[in-house]
Amino acid sequence: MVLALSPIPLINDRFFIYLGSLFMIYAIYATSYNILFGYAGLVSFGHAIFFASGAYSTALYTLRIYRDPLAGLLVGVLVTIPLALAIGAVTLRHTRIYFSILTLALGMVLYALLIKLRGVTGGSDGLVGIPKKGLLIDISSPSSYYFFIYLFFVLSIFAGYIVMRSRLGLLIRALGANEDRLPFSGHSVFAIRLYTFTISGVLAGLAGSLYAILMGVVTPDIAYWTFSADPLIMTLLGGSGYYLGPSIGALIFLILTTIFARYSDVWMLFFGLAVIGIVLGFRGGIIGFAAWLWEKTSRRETRGV
Which is the most buried residue in 103, 105, 150, 259, by most CB within 10 A? Predict the structure, then answer.
């Protein structure tokens, strides 16, 4: 996947460069959600909180304090760390259904604040003019901002993979498998939940910061609860049981929304039908179906031998 994305700027088409950039942002966002959902077994309906906080922090910093996209990106990521810890401390002490409802409620609180605090956030109009050029870095050309996003995409995907292969990742998997047995290993369920929630939130904040730099504008729509459902859909499309499942799901999500939105006024109807068909037809996501098909084919070849 890393090799396939690297030559896209050579096409020299702004639209494809934009789609490639947006895909990488969606892939980071979906991967962050899958760490929480696919591995820890926690369903959040307010994951857009961190995406929006990263985006708005980057926008506010670059527009009002220091006009540089790299500095704004770092600020956007750093802001999500205490935010994730604070929200996790409030929501993770409750059972899973109450956790989901609390994240939904907090997400809608943030959305309302972004609408009402017009003097700070720009209200429903959002913040416009987020720079791609600063004192530290200049990514104003399509190829330069693509490789800027590409760098953080590669780093975040590999960092997440290393975490999930580590001892902490094993504990996160154990949490999702059976959280009732986890305390018998001498570990705190709440602590592992909080670690997972924070890692997931930081990655989502990174995706939001990259989104703000790519678009040059942020609006409250990215904090609405439906935007929290997008990574869930991506994860289900690709396969929540596989690390690269959300990235594959993000690719399918982007292709479907782009095609249907371009050729139909009621594109959400056709998109919904397509998602239903894929989820019901490919249990375990696209990667899960491919793995099942490969295993079935291998068994037939073994029996033939």
Answer: 103
User: Measured between alpha carbons, how far is residue 235 from residues 10, 28, 91, 302 in Å?
Assistant: 30, 11, 22, 32
Enumerate long-range contacts of 112-116, CB under 8 Å, 24 or more apart. 114/52, 114/56, 114/220, 114/223, 115/220
Determine what percent of the chain falls in helix, strand and coil, rounding each to the nearest 5. 80, 0, 20
Question: How many CA atoms lie within 13 Å of 101's alpha carbon, on the beta-carbon side?
Answer: 6
Structure tokens at 198: 């924070």
Q: What is the pTM of this model?
A: 0.93
176: which residues sit within 8 A by CB, 6+ positions away?
38, 39, 40, 41, 42
For 107-124, give the secondary structure using H, E and C.
HHHHHHHHHHCHHHHCHH
Q: Judge contact between 101 and 95, C-beta under 8 A.
A: no
Q: Is the pLDDT of residue 144 over 70?
A: yes
Which two structure tokens, joined as six digits, stand for 128? 């416009």
User: Which stretches of 216-284 are DSSP H helices?
Assistant: 225-238, 245-263, 267-281
Chain segment 212-248, per-residue pLDDT in tens: 999 999 999 999 988 999 999 999 889 888 899 999 9
232 touches 37 (CB < 8 A): yes
CA–CA gap between residue 97 and residue 87 (Å, rounded): 16
Q: Which of 206, 62, 54, 210 lies closest to 128, judged by CA?
A: 62
Task: Locate 274 and state its tokens.
Answer: 């397509």
Cα–Cα distance measured from residue 298 to residue 304, given in angstroms and rounded to the nearest whole number: 10
Q: What are phi and psi of 92, to 5 degrees?
A: -80, -10
Report the pLDDT value the prediction gives residue 93, as an integer from 0 to 100.
Answer: 86
Distance CA 65, CA 275 (A): 42
For tokens 């926690």, the residue is 42
Cβ atoms of 58 and 64 within 8 Å: the answer is no
Eight-class DSSP state of 216: S
pLDDT-above-90 percentage for the chain: 63
User: Average pLDDT of the chain?
Assistant: 90
